[in-house]
Structures are given as C-alpha cells and as structure tokens.
C-alpha cells in the first residue's frame, strides 16, 4: 500500500474500501464546512477543495471572516486554528454530483448528522446545496437558513461559484454578520 499524505484516509464506504479525505475535526468546533463528496483531485493532493472552484469558495469564506486566508492552497491549518473543520456527506470521491447515487447520500446523511450533533457543531457551512437538503430537508436559498437542524445548529448555504458579484457580496455579508454577532 502506498503511504498516505495530507488528509488522505482509507475508509470503508458501504462495504468497499475507498481512498478519500479524512474528516478534519477541531478540538472545539466553532463551525464545519460540509461538502457533498471529495473530488479526485483533492483526494490525490490529500487536501480539501483543491480545484479552482473549491479554492474560490474557500477564499470567499476567508474573506467573510470564518478563518484567516492561508498563503498557499491548503486551508485545513488556517481553518483548524479558527475552530473550523471539514467533512463530506459521501466519502467516495467522484467528479461531480451526477456520479453520486441517492443511496450513497442516504447512507452518508445519517452519519453526518450524528457526527455534527455529537460534537455540538452550531454552525454548518455548506459549500454547495446538497448538504443543506440533507440537513434541513430542503435546498433553501443561498445565505443563512431560517430553519435549524434538529439539534439547533445554524446552516449557511454559500452562493454558487459563478453567481453574480452583487449576490455573492450580499450572501457572504450574511455570514460575516453572523460571525460578528458571536452567536
């Protein structure tokens, strides 16, 4: 077996071993960034969100004040220093949402909610729409969701990576205001 690097992990996923990204949990989670599943390029690098779109989304989160922007491509260290971690619903890497089955989302969603609740996560940042639907039963719209999780956590859905700048600024200012409120 090859040596693992970065946050790579071998995990059992629905009865099959997959090379994936390990969950990154801060000691005292202030927030968790939740994605649908890791991209193969991210797993290959051993770090979350290594594609151009993912990098752009994480830079938006840094600009909103969720954590300090790192000098390079790897965000885990800066996020952990701010009490922010990373996880995905589905552990099997794939190129896109079309490659992820409903059975995998169902399987991963129960594990996700249990892990977030047991660790007392009070802010969940969803880079894309799928985790919002898993956690709240609806995709909602970009921004802070009115509905909370079953354990009372707030859920923030990021704007799409190609959304208009004025929409991105408006939505990301909601996250900044929430972070400034100390809630």
TrEMBL record:
Superkingdom to which the source organism belongs: Bacteria
Pfam families attached to this UniProt entry: UDG
Protein source organism: Microbacterium thalli
Domain Uracil-DNA glycosylase-like, chain residue ranges per copy: 26-140
Name of the featured protein: Uracil-DNA glycosylase family protein
């Amino acid at each position: 077996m090859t040596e693992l690097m970065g946050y790579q992990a071998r995990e059992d996923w629905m009865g099959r071993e997959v090379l994936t990204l390990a969950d990154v949990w801060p000691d005292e989670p202030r927030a968790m960034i939740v994605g649908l599943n890791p991209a193969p390029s991210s797993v290959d690098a051993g770090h979350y969100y290594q594609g151009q779109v993912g990098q752009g989304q994480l830079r938006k989160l840094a600009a909103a004040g969720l954590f300090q922007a790192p000098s390079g491509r790897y965000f885990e260290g800066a996020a952990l220093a701010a009490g922010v971690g990373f996880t995905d619903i589905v552990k099997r890497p794939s190129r896109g949402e079309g490659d992820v089955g409903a059975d995998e989302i169902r399987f991963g969603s129960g594990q996700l909610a249990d892990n977030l609740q047991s660790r007392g996560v009070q802010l969940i940042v969803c880079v894309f729409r799928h985790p919002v639907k898993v956690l709240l039963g609806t995709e909602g719209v970009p921004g802070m969701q009115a509905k909370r999780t079953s354990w009372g956590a707030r859920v923030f859905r990021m704007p799409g990576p190609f959304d208009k700048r004025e929409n991105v600024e408006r939505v990301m200012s909601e996250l900044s205001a929430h972070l400034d409120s100390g809630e």
